[in-house]
Structures are given as C-alpha cells and as structure tokens.
Write a structure and sequence with these properties.
Keywords: Cell wall biogenesis/degradation, Glycoprotein, Glycosyltransferase, Golgi apparatus, Transferase. The protein is built from 22 helices and 14 strands. By secondary structure, the chain is α/β, with parallel strands linked by helices. Helix 3 crosses helix 4 and helix 8 crosses helix 16.
Length: 563
C-alpha cells in the first residue's frame, strides 16, 4: 500500500479539530477550502465537541498526579460529576461562583479517602428539606420564634411545638478557637441529624465569614433578632439548663415541659449531670419536651453519641466505617469562602503542587508563645524516627553520588509547617538549606503565616487559620501536636492518619516523641464516664470496640474502625 495515498486521503478529510486549527490548516494549504453546507455542519459539530471537551481537559491537566491519556480522558469525562459532588455528599444547583470551593475542591487534591453510605446520602437530603421547611424566613420559624419570645408552650392547639411534624431546633453556641468551632459544628450537626432538628449557628463567631452556607435554599445562621440574647454568656447555672432540669424532683420530662427551651452546657469541663445528655432516657425527654435546644460546646463529642444504644443502629447505617465520621461530615459542611479558597489554591499551586512528596507539620505549643528548644528537638526526633524527613550529611556529595542516592532521579519533598511562631520553621528550613540530604532528595520548607499570638474570632486571623487547615489536609503525610483541635481538623479534612506528638512535660522532649494514631478521627477531650446501658460509672473507652482512648489524651475518646 502506498503511504502517500493514505496520507493524501487523510489530509483531504474534513478536519475534526477546533475551528482555529481548521483555519490554520486552510491557510497552510494542507486541506481544501470548501464552504459548502456539509462542511459548515461539520464545523458546528466540531465546535460543539471542543466546547464539551475543553472543561474536562482543563480539569485533567489541573489535577495532580493525573497524566493525560485517552483512557483517563474518557474515564474523567464519565466520572467527573460524581467526583465533583463527592460521591453524592453534595447536590448540584448552588451558584458555583459564589462558593468556588464547594465543587472545585474535588479536583484539587486527592481522591476521597472514604465514600459516603447510601443511607447517609439519603438522610442528608432529608435534612436539607428540613432546613428549608423550618429555617429562618419560613412561617414555621417565625411561629416557633414567637412562642419562644413569649415563653408560651402550646398544648394541642394549632402550632403546637409537640405536634407531629412540628419543627424543632438546635441552636449551637460554639466558642474558643476556630478548630474548636469546626469540631463543635460537626458534632452538633450529627446530633441534629439524629434527632430531626434544624441546626442554627450563633453569629458571634467568624464561621459565617470564612465558610459558605452548606444547605441549599436555607441559611444556618441564627437571625440577629433571635429572642434569647447574650448566648455566649449562658452557663449550666441558668434555670433552663439541662444540668438543673435532670436534678428536679418531679422528673426531667416534667421540668422540661414547663420550659420554652433547654440549655445544654457541653464545655470540655462540664459536670456529670450535664453529660447525662448523651444517654437514652434524657434524649427521649428532650425530644418530647424541648422544641428549642440551645447548646454551648467547644469540641468534638461524636464518640459519646456512639455510646448511646438509642443511636447505635442509625449510626451504623450512616457510617459503616467508624473512622470516617468527621471526614465525611467536614466535606459536606465546611466549604471555605472565595477569599479563603484563594489563599489555599495560590499557596498550593506555588509551593506544594509540583513536589513528589508533601509532609505537613502542625505545631501547637501550650506553654506560651515563646519558642522552646525541646519542641524543636521533638519535631526532629519524630520526623527522623518515623522516616518522614531524610537525614542530612556533613559533607557535600559529588553530583554522581547524589544522583545515585536518589535512584537516578532527584526527588523533591515539600514540607508545610503551620504554627504561631516562625522559629521552628526557620530552624528546619536552615537545616535542609545548609546541608545536603543523605537520600539526595531536595527538601523545601514553607510556612504560610506566623501570627505569633492566637487571635480567635478575628476574621482575618481565622481566614488564615482555615486556609492552613485545608493546606495541611492536602499533604500526603502529617505530623500534629497532641491536644490540638487545629491539628485534628487538619488531618481530618485530608483523611490522613497522623503521627501525633505527645504533649511535653517539664520542658522535656517526650520519649517516644510521637506515635502513629489509630484513626484519623478527632479526640473528644471531655467524655462521659457513665454507661448508658447499666446506668453506672464506667471506663467508656472499653465499652464498645469502635470507641477507644486517644493516643494524646489518656482519658479522651476517639472513634476507630475495628479491623
């Protein structure tokens, strides 16, 4: 066969390329210029194909570690919608421009570490409908707020708070740092999901400034004219507190029925009576007698919900994998605003995207803002013993030796450090600048910000904090500081099982300096010590196999997935 003939035949076929390429071919004389209607139709078809394919091609190029092939093109074309919606966690229909992170984050990092169950997806859709039916701006909310303002409880009349299908509410009052706030919101949302309550957030935090709204067609921010004022000042000592009600001689249910709301104080240092909230009998009386539950908390209390027999079956259907709770809830609820998303993507593209390996190191010091040598020693000991960072050599290796040590290709490692102080970052950066690595790797160390002091509640400060939490989640491996809610959120967002550095005592580097966690779930710092089944005190880290004590806090609780 003549190759020339084949070539000529192909060159005369109508071009299947984009119109610009077609015109260029025509100018070069490689194709016949024909303006007939058949060719015009082909041009329109080619243009349509190009327009459809272009977004997918752009997404393919933008994704890390995803080289283009014909197979990957068609696979991405068929699965991009599912990935964009995080396997069904999210729903289409939001204005993408108003919150870029909601749909773009799926293509800006790793694949989903855990997939949502069909039952979780179903319950999320039902809860979204509940938020739309009962949320601010609806007649149901206006009526419920009016009854709350008057302190009146109806009994059988129209608008009865206890009538079937009546709207019930959980008002969350989070406090302390942004990490605490995020863990509190995830916990409160799961409780609202389990008890069919609309979730509303107190506006006194920066959450409304750094996060997009998660529910389609509804707001989760508490209206400014909410009848109860000074929510941040409520304590367990108020007459409406859960602590007070469960100690009433007439019974908790009777006491709650006389109140227009119940206040639940779940501070990490709350009392025994406050923590009875987590048990079955108390849940029933709240559901029957309290249309409004106001909750103040500063942490993650999901493990305690898994100890309640009343929720056991539903939680198992929602989360077949017990170590996926925060990861899935966080990816459903927490979408950074466009300003925060810009901070995340610009830093990622400039410093992390093109590295072969990414290590996150989150530093939290609880003994003040002054840098400590023993903390630096702990970081270096942990990353060395766990082979997370390479050793350095005292003499410069010859180029051939360096290439051989790197296996013929010089790998790059990006280290993302976060913390209030820049001193730890500067020392580690200097270590890898002044000396070559024994492996031949090129190590670069970066820190987005160093605020020196924690300024929780200030929007600009919290924008940087949220950006750094998300950037930590975009790394491949992560080291975090024990007890740190910032670290819990960072590794939880990324679906990463961290190496946790133990909290030092007496300004001495712990031995061992760190330990690999049992799961990526956060730790509950103030757990109950009460068995809901036996109605007696108990070691709650030994009641069920999927709730165990934390690595960094011996009395804390965390979820694990039993193997």
């Amino acid at each position: 066969m003549s190759l020339e003939g084949v070539g000529t035949g192909l060159s005369k076929r109508p071009s299947q390329q984009c119109p610009d390429a077609r015109r260029a071919e025509a100018q070069e004389g490689t194709v016949e210029q024909d303006t007939g209607p058949w060719i015009a139709r082909k041009k329109v078809t080619a243009l349509a194909i190009c327009l459809v394919a272009l977004p997918v091609l752009m997404t393919t190029v933008s994704r890390r570690d995803a080289p283009w092939t014909a197979a990957s093109f068609w696979q991405l074309a068929s699965t991009s919608t599912k990935e964009k919606l995080l396997g069904g966690l999210l729903v289409p229909g939001f204005d993408e421009r108003s919150c870029l992170s909601r749909y773009h984050s799926a293509f800006y990092g790793k694949t989903m570490a855990r997939s949502p169950s069909a039952h979780l997806i179903k319950r999320l859709r039902e809860h979204e409908a509940l938020q739309r039916r009962c949320g601010p701006g609806t007649e149901a909310y206006r009526s419920a707020a009016a009854r709350l303002r008057s302190g009146h409880r109806n009994n059988g009349s129209d608008g009865d708070d206890n009538a079937p299908g009546a709207c019930k509410y959980l008002v969350l009052v989070p406090y302390r740092g942004l990490g605490n706030n995020i863990l509190a919101v995830a916990s409160a949302f799961l409780y609202a999901l389990l008890t069919d309550r609309a979730l509303l957030l107190d506006r006194e935090t920066s959450l409304g400034d750094v996060l997009c709204q998660p529910f389609p067609g509804a707001t989760w921010l508490l209206p400014k004219n909410f009848p109860i004022k000074n929510l941040q000042n409520l304590t367990g000592e108020v007459p409406e507190s859960y602590r007070h009600l469960v100690q009433q001689s007439g019974g908790a249910a009777a006491a709650a029925s006389r109140r227009s709301y119940v206040f639940v104080d779940l501070d990490h240092s709350c009392t025994y009576h406050d923590k009875l909230f987590f048990c079955d009998d108390e849940r029933r009386f709240l559901r029957r007698g309290a249309p409004w539950v106001l909750m103040r908390t500063d942490g993650y209390f999901v493990p305690a919900l898994f100890l309640n027999p009343a929720y056991e079956g539903e939680l198992h259907r929602l989360f077949p994998r017990k170590d996926a709770v925060f990861y899935l809830l966080a990816h459903y609820l927490f979408h950074p605003t466009n300003k925060v998303w810009g901070l995340i993507t610009r830093f990622h593209d400039a410093y992390l995207k093109n590295s072969d390996d990414r290590l996150g190191i989150q530093v939290r010091v609880f003994d003040g803002d002054t840098p400590f040598q023993h903390i630096l020693d702990q970081i270096l000991a942990c990353t060395s013993q766990e082979n997370l960072l390479p050793e350095v050599v005292t003499q410069e290796p010859a180029p051939a030796a360096a290439a051989a040590a790197a296996g013929g290709a010089r790998r790059s490692k990006a280290v993302l450090m976060t913390g209030l102080s820049s001193w730890y970052y500067e020392n580690i950066r200097w270590k890898y600048w002044q000396s070559a690595t024994a492996t031949g790797e090129a190590v670069s160390v970066y820190q987005p910000s160093h605020e020196e002091h924690q300024l929780s509640g200030y929007t600009t400060h919290d924008m940087k904090a949220l950006a750094e939490m998300y950037l930590l989640g975009m790394t491949d491996r992560i080291v975090t500081s024990g007890w740190s809610t910032f670290g819990y959120v960072g590794h939880g967002l990324g679906g990463l099982t961290p190496w946790i550095m133990f909290r030092p005592e007496n300004h001495t580097t712990p031995s061992p300096p760190c330990r690999r966690a049992k799961s990526m779930e956060p730790c509950m710092h103030g757990p109950p010590f009460y068995d809901c089944r036996t109605k007696h005190g108990a070691d709650t880290g030994k009641l069920v196999p999927h709730v165990q004590h934390c690595e960094d806090m011996s009395w804390g609780l965390k979820l694990v997935h039993p193997e």
